[in-house]
Amino acid sequence: MSLCYSQLTLPDRKRLFHLRERKVSVSEIARQLGRHRSTIYRELKRNTFQDHEFPEYSGYYSGIANDMSKERRRRLRKLRRHPHLRDLVIDRLKAHWSPEQIAGRLLADGVSPVRICPETIYRFIYCKEDYPLGLYQHLPERRRRRRRRGARKPRDGLIPLDYRISQRPDFIDDRSQFGHWEGDLLIFRRELGETNVTSLVERKSRYTVMIKNRSRHSRPIMDKIIHAFSPLPSFARRSFTFDRGTEFSAFRALEDGIGARSWFCDPNSPWQKGAVENTNKRIRRFMPGDTDLSNVAQKQLVDLAHHLNSLPRKCLGYKTPAEVFMAHLRECG
Q: Which of 58, 166, 286, 328 is paired with 96 by a 20 to 30 Å CA distance?
């Protein structure tokens, strides 16, 4: 008998039906099905068909038992039994909250007496009854069917080895010190022009900054970073970690302009700046690769960054990046 419990399947119920027809005892049925006899007793009690008008038709039938079980499980779903909670989850999904953010914030705020997990929300989104609502369109990947995520293809570039990430201090790697950022470039379809977006994320608070660029030339990109970060105190802009793309080759300008040190990932290792990679996926929900940036103003990027910074994050105890970032500014100021 398996130590891991699983629901009876239709083939199990067909075998149970035939064994019952042969007048096999419950203990022997349980042994043959590899189940505890309590499971068999419970199955027979719950899913035996009762016809009060024609008692002779009453009995255990595998197909009917399977349908009765499915209907009972459908009725017992939390988001079906609690309409107010269901409406709250739908509203949060339409506001582009992830299932993990919704479940975490509900628990942190104590808004609902019913506790749900992200998997409950995912099953609600993709179940047959509620799939027509199209809630999957509000998820980060907008997938019509659930599937495993594939691996990303790495990129490479040329940067002096003196600035490799292996030389970066441990207090940056473990996020124990505030003011260390990761940066990347969001590229869009070539036929729409060379305009791109620099995305920058503070490692400890996950606070996001987005800057529009006219080209991939490195010095103008660095100048815009300097302009955006100059108003911040020096402890809030200590260093930046980039990949090895040529668009970051003018990194020394950051040290001259705002006193910020630069670090660079190893070749083919974008995961070493995972905070900004994760943020880029969030940004792509609103700005896919076919976005025409000529119609997007810097203010719209600021508004999008504000939206991302106002979403609760599991890694922050379901606080928002803006809340954590401002708390560090006040604490260190």
A: 328
